[in-house]
Design goal:
Blueprint lengths: L3 E2 L2 E5 L2 E4 L11 E3 L3 H7 L3 H9 L9 E8 L6 E8 L4 E2 L11 E10 H4 L3 H11 L14 H10 L1 H6 L5 H5 L17 H7 L12 E10 L2 H7 L5 E8 L2 H22 L11 E2 L3 H35 L5 E8 L1 E10 L2 E10 L2 E2 L18 E4 L7 E6 L1 H6 L3 E2 L9 H7 L2 H10 L3 E3 L3 H6 L8 H10 L3 E14 L1
Parallel strand pairs: 4-5, 19-20
Antiparallel strand pairs: 1-2, 2-3, 3-4, 5-6, 6-14, 7-11, 8-10, 8-12, 9-10, 9-20, 13-14, 15-18, 16-17, 17-20
Helix pairs in contact: 4-11, 5-11, 8-10, 10-11
The chain binds one DNA strand of 6 nucleotides through helix 10.
Length: 480
DNA sequence: ATGTTC
């Protein structure tokens, strides 16, 4: 017997199916990884229809997956995972999103919250002073077109080679901080123009720098493996590919709208514009997307370097090392086992994190016995989580988990109901010192605008798609 | 997310 919630059928605890009969054209079912309360909310939400639309795309394999932090996005839902055959399926810019390789880097330090607490205001002010943030912000690096081409190909390595980081940083970046598929020839002049002054800038919206500390450890072995001891101070960086990736997405949505006619592809929503992966347009988008992904890794590498500079200035002798760096808006060619056979797929994760289980050969050596650190930021007033990947996720969700709390209120609704300066004062009373580019932008990012990330994380853990490692509580935040 | 309506 399976329980029904609107059009959704519960197939297992935390696993709800949206059957192919929900909408004409669906080639596979949708699967939502949620608890019952969330299933009821999503059953009425636009993201459910988007999940179904994705299931209509050519070459989709298995199911169109929705993570517990799912909400409506451009065409594809945010919190969505969709894998397509590379020989007969499509690639879609909407399945990656406008902020290509938006992602998170977590760094641990050699000091504790007791060391930092007395200096948190000064530390946060210096972070805001030394790390450019906000819309249209520009960095200290002004790249020539040739330099930018190198960034597009080399990713995080480009920055490390120029003294902005440590070799170890690369080992703990997904893909070692660079996708091999990058080809700068697939990137427009306009994207280059927008990207040249933006390396080493945080951006705006939900992008942030956060000083936080380990306040709970759930698994001693995993936490030790990731270097996350009780009260260790960490820094989380959330940023992406800025105007550069945005322009690449814009360019290719337009290219693919034309390509669809040429290739005879029909989609239920124009925002799902796509092309066969093995077509000229599909390959060029993949190459350009990889350039943006590599730009974002270089960006987080430079940001990490700037953070290190600030931390060392205030705490001489401090060691700041990368725990892990994940993309949560990206598409990659990966091998997965489908119906008992290995198959090459182009896996789109939009607001979803890749999660490798113990023993996966792609893991850095130090983590191979433990699985991948999954970084799940919550909101600036509560907490974030570090999880570890499982083999079950590799089997059930193409090795994917959630990426954050997920919005509860729209930006508009949050701005109406929250006063930015009052929010700052409230957080300060809680021991969280917050600086933003404006009170309005802070209000949009208020804790009450987000779901409680602990509920999102519980679903992943109880469904067996991740293991709980540690919880991080913020003490100083710079918002873009 | 984004030189937030090239």
């Amino acid at each position: 017997m399976s329980k029904q919630v609107g059009p959704l059928l519960q197939r297992a605890p935390y696993r709800y199916e949206l059957p192919e009969t929900y909408k004409k054209g669906m080639r596979v079912p949708g699967i939502l990884w949620v608890n019952e309360a969330a299933a009821r909310l999503i059953a009425e939400d636009q993201s459910l229809d988007q999940l179904a639309n994705v299931a209509c795309l050519p070459g989709i394999v298995g199911a169109s997956h929705g993570m517990p932090d799912i909400h409506a996005g451009y065409g594809f839902p945010i919190g969505g995972v969709a894998a397509f055959r590379t020989d007969s399926g499509v690639i879609s810019p909407g399945g990656v999103g406008y902020d290509i390789n938006c992602g998170v880097r977590l760094m641990k330090t050699s000091i504790t919250v007791e060391d930092v607490r007395p200096h948190i205001e000064e530390l946060t002010r210096r972070l805001q002073r030394d790390v450019p943030s906000g819309l249209a912000s520009e960095g200290e690096l002004s790249l020539s077109a040739a330099d930018l081409r190198d960034v597009m190909v080399q990713g995080a390595q480009w920055a490390v080679d120029r003294g902005m980081g440590e070799l170890q940083d690369l080992e703990f970046c997904e893909d070692r901080g660079a996708m091999q598929a990058a080809d700068p020839n697939a990137v427009s002049e306009r994207a280059v123009k927008r990207g040249r002054n933006q390396l080493g800038t945080l951006g705006s919206g939900n992008h942030f720098l956060e000083v936080c500390y380990v306040d709970s450890v759930y698994d001693d072995g995993l936490a030790e493996a990731f270097g996350l001891r009780y009260h260790t101070v960490c820094v989380m960086v959330h940023s992406g590919s800025r105007g550069f990736g945005h322009q690449i997405c814009t360019d290719y949505v337009s290219i693919m709208l034309k390509a669809m006619t040429k290739h005879g592809i029909h989609v239920p929503d124009r925002q799902l514009a796509c092309a066969p992966f093995d077509s000229d347009e599909g390959q060029k988008y993949y190459s350009a997307m990889a350039c943006a992904a590599n730009f974002a890794w270089a960006n987080r590498q430079v940001l990490a370097h700037l953070v290190r500079g600030v931390m060392s200035g205030l705490f001489p002798g401090i060691k700041v090392s990368t725990v892990y760096d994940v993309a949560h808006n990206i598409a990659r060619v990966e091998k997965h086992v489908v119906e008992g056979r290995p198959l090459e797929l182009i896996v789109h994760r939009k607001g979803a994190t890749k999660a490798l289980g113990p023993g996966n050969s792609l893991l850095p050596g130090a983590y191979s016995r433990y699985g991948q650190p999954i970084l799940v930021p919550g909101d600036m007033g509560r907490y974030s989580y570090v999880l570890a990947g499982t083999v079950k996720a590799q089997e059930e969700t193409f090795g994917s988990t959630c990426h954050g709390a997920g919005r509860l209120l729209s930006r508009e609704a949050a701005k109406k109901s929250v006063d930015g300066s009052m929010l700052k004062a409230t957080l300060r009373d809680k021991g969280i010192f917050v600086l933003g580019t404006s009170n309005a932008s802070l209000a949009e990012e208020a804790p009450e605008a987000y779901k409680d990330v602990s509920e999102v994380v519980s679903v992943m853990v109880d469904a067996g798609l991740a293991r709980k490692v540690a919880r991080l509580v913020p003490i100083g935040v710079v918002k873009g």
